TrEMBL record:
Domain Peptidase S33 tripeptidyl aminopeptidase-like C-terminal: 228-283
Protein known as: Pimeloyl-ACP methyl ester carboxylesterase
SUPFAM superfamilies, A to Z: alpha/beta-Hydrolases
Entry-linked InterPro entries: AB_hydrolase_1 (IPR000073), AB_hydrolase_fold (IPR029058), Pept_S33_TAP-like_C (IPR013595)
Domain of life: Bacteria
UniProt xrefs under Gene3D superfamilies: alpha/beta hydrolase
Length: 289
């Protein structure tokens, strides 16, 4: 494996100071540790838009809309022009942006589509400091009302899980594509708590805290469960070397789909996969057929 490929297959590391502070708080109080972990879990990192995404940012028609169900505002991007009305919805992942799937968007525009994307609450240009998957899902459903219908919807990472759940909740699209998506919510919280160096019981308590706040069971939002009720053709793309979401997640989602395809890649990791030409060609052909 080359150095460049290795770079894309290394997991993002939590700063040592946060790990240390988590352990100190947990030593003092389990309750405080859960509260601290929950705050970290719902707080994305806002990255400066990279140069490669500036063209999409500058050429998009942008507007801030209100997602009534959660009373949050999101910045929406309409990219490209056509007379056919054909549209594809793009959904970024955690700490991403509405322009993150720019490579896919560029290719879709070439074949006559308009892409609609958005900065999820507390991401990119959208206001706020914290958010959770239910906000992503509500945003997708609101955007369909205002900007749909969509021929296809594409989601990366948490965006993929959100897409699957939005379909479960009534989102209408002809096809879906999920890239590097997690499959089981409990696995995500377990991994997060493990990276903080905390005991597994904190993960259980963290889920219980969110369930009390938002209602329902967190694992009901697992993508593999949504896949069981998904009838539209769905393409699952996942890298065998993804360090943040293991490939078994993509395989599990595919196994629960009634009408699914699976594309496994190598040495692309969790983000480089979004710009890989073979992946983009597969997505384009999947939408066109």
């Amino acid at each position: 494996m080359t150095k460049n490929a290795l770079k894309h297959t290394k997991p993002l590391k939590i700063p040592k100071i946060i790990i240390l502070s988590s352990k100190v708080i947990a030593f003092l109080s389990t309750k405080w540790a859960v509260i601290y972990a929950s705050k970290l879990f719902v707080t994305p990192i806002k990255h400066k838009i990279p140069k490669r995404e500036i063209e999409m940012d500058e050429k998009s028609l942008q507007q801030m809309i209100t997602v009534q169900a959660i009373n949050r505002k999101v910045n929406v991007y309409e990219y490209g022009k056509n007379d056919t009305g054909k549209k594809v919805l793009l959904v970024h992942g955690w700490s991403g942006r509405g322009t993150q799937l720019y490579k896919i968007a560029d290719e879709l525009i070439k074949i006559g589509y308009i892409t609609v994307s958005f900065d999820a609450p507390a991401h990119g240009k959208s206001p706020g400091n914290s958010t959770i998957m239910v906000d992503f899902i509500a945003s997708i459903i609101e955007i369909e009302k205002q900007f749909g219908p969509f021929e296809a919807v594409i989601g990366h990472s948490l965006g993929g899980m959100s897409v699957m759940n939005a379909i479960k909740q009534g989102l209408k699209a002809d096809k879906a594509i999920v890239i590097g998506s997690g499959d089981i919510v409990q696995d995500i919280t377990d991994d997060f708590i493990a990276k903080l160096g905390l005991k597994p019981v904190i993960s259980k308590l963290l889920c219980e805290r969110f369930e009390q706040k938002y209602g329902g069971k967190m694992n009901d939002y697992s993508a593999y469960k949504a896949a069981e009720t998904t009838l539209i053709p769905t393409l699952v793309v996942h890298d065998k070397n993804d360090p943040e979401v293991p490939v078994k997640a993509g395989i599990n989602i595919h196994q629960h789909l009634k009408n699914g395809e699976l594309m496994l890649t190598e040495k692309l990791g969790h983000r480089k996969i979004l710009a890989d030409q073979q992946v983009i060609e597969k997505i384009i052909n999947f939408i066109k057929k």
